[in-house]
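Feature request disguised as a bug report, sorry. It would help if multi-protein outputs had a clear separator. Right now it looks like this:
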Amino acid sequence: MRYYTHSMSHHHFSTTERSEIAILLKKSYSHHDIANTLGCSQSSVSREIRRNSVHGIYEPRKAKQKARVRRTHSKYQGMKVRERPDLQWYIIDKLEQQWTPEEISGRKIRIFPTSVQRESTSGCTQYMVSNTVPCYQNNA
């Protein structure tokens, strides 16, 4: 059993960790105890279970599939911005003016009303944390 004592860096749960979560849940372990066993934060375990359970049941195979779909969708949001050079320059300009992703995306919809970027905060954020916008990476 591993116990964490310092802040953990972000990582995705592996197939083995998801299997361990499922086993420990069936044994009625608390989220806190599961986190200590895996060496991660309780909030990470709780978020994994909440996001990737199906009808209140956590199954590792289904959890992996749901997480993969979410990551793919998230990556696609940033790619939509990359396909539009006018949006790229707009986002970079506003970042240099210290605007937040929420401010950028709210204003962007008014300036680019025909844009398909309606779920734009996630698209802006994903684009900003990519290698394309180094000024934002230091703050992420």
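(second protein starts here, but nothing in the output says so)
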Amino acid sequence: MFCVNMSRLYLGYKSTIPRAMFHHSTFPRVVLPIVSSEVSVLPSFIPFVPLQYKHLHTSAVLERARQSTRIRKRKVALANKKKKEERIRKNPPPIPKKVQLMLIAKGLGKEPAPWRHPDSRPFPEDDVWSEMWCTWPRMSVKDSLESLSEHYHPTMLNRPEEMVWAKLEFNLQAPKKEKFMDGYSKMVPVYNPFERGVAEKTIMVFAKDPEAVQAAEAAGALKAGGLELVDDLAKGKIDVSDIDHFLAHEDIIKDLKPLIGILRDKMPSKPQGSVSSDLPKLVKTFAHGMSVSVIKPGPTLGYAEDPSYAYAELQIGRLNMDPELVESNLTTALTTLREQAPKRSGSYITRCQLYVEGPLKTKFDIHHPLIDDEKYVIHLATIPEEASSG
């Protein structure tokens, strides 16, 4: 056993610890065993000497690329992602065996089901037929409403004032091949209002023409005016939160730029459908109308992917209303939604079903001039006029 002076202890870097740090009065002399041939003995207490480290970067890892480079690379990544999705859609991978067994256990079938119900069966030739061998019947709007009213009559299900829903199916094939439209939302006017649990909206209209201002007020606008109304909003005389929708005529849209920072999301614009030359229709659309969403279903277990398929569900009236008023609301909705139809030949709204949310799960298909039911049109052309009129 030996003793050693800590002033000569080498700690593994170039400089040794200063001699003054290890004074005999500070560190007592303690007997320790031999550690190595170079250093024979060590003190019983080794002080902790903090070492300062600095990270050295050989490249600028914390700097971003130029904005134009980031945008270009993002566009390339999105394009590659779309190409991969399209390639997988055209050549889908086989369904794993375990997934097939799970689908069979859930009753979904081994193969994925299509979103559109296949319409390959013929029309019936007799007055009595089975839907197992024939296609589904197409009824008029009046007949389908009568059938729903019979099921929900007070002597049956006792729900005579239930809401009538319409389910629409769309073909979103774009004009270009292998291109498809995206889902969208559109305001649909309701010219025959009915109780649906929605508060009436307050409307403000901007227009230069005095006649257009009077027409907007007659249609139900809370306030309507020209440049003087713009000045009142800019000066804060009108509270923006009290108004639900701001609408504008096409002749004044350029004079509304000072209101961009004030109205923000409520700013009238053509993409939102809040700018038009037909102000009465526009006011009724936003005051009593409803937002209809055309939805494209995403990848769903048990269903085959169909990028052209979309659907929408909307309320068109109640069972205790006049069937003509309900049909008028449906016609208005179909006309408004067809404004978004792509510029191509072929079908757009392919199917329409009327139903009521309740115990009855049956949905009644209808025929309508604004529904592109090609099979029904061909069938009408093959039967005599007397039978079709009857």
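Even a blank line would do. Unrelated, but nice: The longest strand covers residues 309-318.
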